[in-house]
Design a protein that fits this description.
Elements (H helix, E strand, L loop, with lengths): L1 E5 L6 H11 L3 E5 L2 H6 L2 E4 L5 H10 L3 H10 L4 E4 L1 H4 L4 E2 L5 E2 L6 E5 L16 E9 L13 E7 L1 E5 L5 E7 L2 E9 L2 E4 L7 H13 L3
Parallel strand pairs: 1-2, 1-3, 3-4, 4-13, 5-7
Antiparallel strand pairs: 5-6, 7-10, 8-9, 8-11, 11-12, 12-13
Helix pairs in contact: 1-6
Length: 213
Amino acid sequence: MTIAVIDYGMGNLHSVAKALEHVTHENVIVTRDARRIRGATRLVLPGQGAIRDCMGELEKTGLRGLVEELLARQAKPLLGICVGQQMLLDHSEENGGIGCLGFLRGEVRKFPTDMRDDRGNRLKVPHMGWNLVHQHHDHPLWAGIDQDEHFYFVHSYYVDAADDATVFGTTDYGRVSAHVAIGRDATFAVQFHPEKSSRAGLKLLENFVQWTP
């Protein structure tokens, strides 16, 4: 049993791998070797930085076609993290507009520049720090995690999924309700960083390791 963290040059790879090692006895590898990725029992698609760079590196490493094939087949569980979530959508507004993998319908949108809370106080962009996640639909990865639990975020863009059935968690920031947990079939993806989210984040990773779609 092997969990492969897909290494295309972008993302907090080793922190994610260490967090997975903390919750499982399964073998965890960080790799860009197509053979080892195909042979893994579970996959993690991380991402950090600008979407243009992430999509570009996925192309340069020759892994885009493999990731698209694995998403189409849905033969094994896959967890997307941060930009690894955003990449699953049709399109992102970042960098003047970037086409993404198109696994799930929807857009990645930029937070408005003049973000304010209910009291009129200005909110910072990027959205950085702890915020609660409301479980919009039940999912096995929410097992043992309280409703409106807090997770750790760092992002200036957010997912706006087109199909409500694919939305499993939301976070309100100002007047924006961001779709921070999305999925379909054997794929689940989150905007927050479970590897930085203390007990709740480790529990989500543990659930992923035990998940049989």
